[in-house]
Fold each of these.
Amino acid sequence: MQHVYYISGPMTGIAYWNAPAFVKAAETLKAEGHQVISPVDLDEEVYGVGCHYREIPNFNRADALKRDLCAILDRATAIALLPGWECSSGAIAELAAAKAKYITEIRYL
């Protein structure tokens, strides 16, 4: 079954906001025929392509989390969790939103 996966994982405090891990996960899921929602892509829509490889001026974590939670609630049918997700307050909130929506397809990458 094809899903719309939201990719969740740690970003804060990791080099390049962990963007390489998100990109790799997106490539894997897309190769399997799934659609993907990635916070890296959502950030690039706001701050420009490659924003994770430089300092993001005026970054607002609360706005980003609100946007990400809305993406989960509005469009996701599955969630993929990157290593270290359990130490990320944002990823924990994203998983909680997915579970509140009764998403049962939870994948650990």
Note: The chain has a mean pLDDT of 95.
Amino acid sequence: MLAWTCFALGCAEKVNRTDLDHLNGYWEIERVAFPDGSHREYGINTSVDFMFWDGEKGYRKKVQPNLNGTYSTSDDAAFFKIAENRGVFMIRYNNGMSEWEEQIEFISNSELIVVNEENIRYHYKRFQPGNFQK
């Protein structure tokens, strides 16, 4: 279904395996687009997603940026693998209690768009930490 959505709406660019290296790092949610056409914009976020992928497996966890440039986090993480089927890349998560997947619709060094199983589109931008120290 997700692949059909991408085809019907027209993807900006095809995701390549080499693009997946852009997953590594900190991502801040920018907006969410719902299937009914509505959307929610996010301003300042108190938490961001840290993603790590080594080419075979990875994890994603919520972190809170601190004013001194460090991050606070818990030990909770959602582990994932990425599967490719006919040029469509799916992130398959497992956090020990549940499993879910998201299609990578677009990825670059500064932008990530994923679509979940309910056809909700999440737009992320690369998190740029501010330096609040003088």
Note: The helical segments are 2-9.
Amino acid sequence: MDTHALIWWLLGSEGLSERATRAIETSEAPVWVSAASAWEIATKYRIGKLPAAGEIATGLVDHINTAGFEMMDITFEDANDAGGLPGPHRDPFDRLLIAQAGRRGLPVITTDGVFQTYGVPVIW
């Protein structure tokens, strides 16, 4: 799950598409949340880009556990793959999510079409 989709889910926002909401609610497979999203939320909250995400930033592990999601650590291989991805995409958080999804053969719930350019299936 991309970070914006995670935030929208946790805040109960209407920003998620019907397809994304169904995928989260009805998935028999685990819904994975990357440590990259924890890093992104904490960073953007700290610098003022996510002022509404204070409770999420300070209690993210509890929120993920309550939602029944699985936490995905960042491995050395994930970081290496993310750094080596071709193309101009510069967002380090997205690059990590792309690398992790690609390495594990997972789709990503996201509105960001750049994931598909890297061969990662997108649910939206």
Note: The chain has one domain: 31-123.
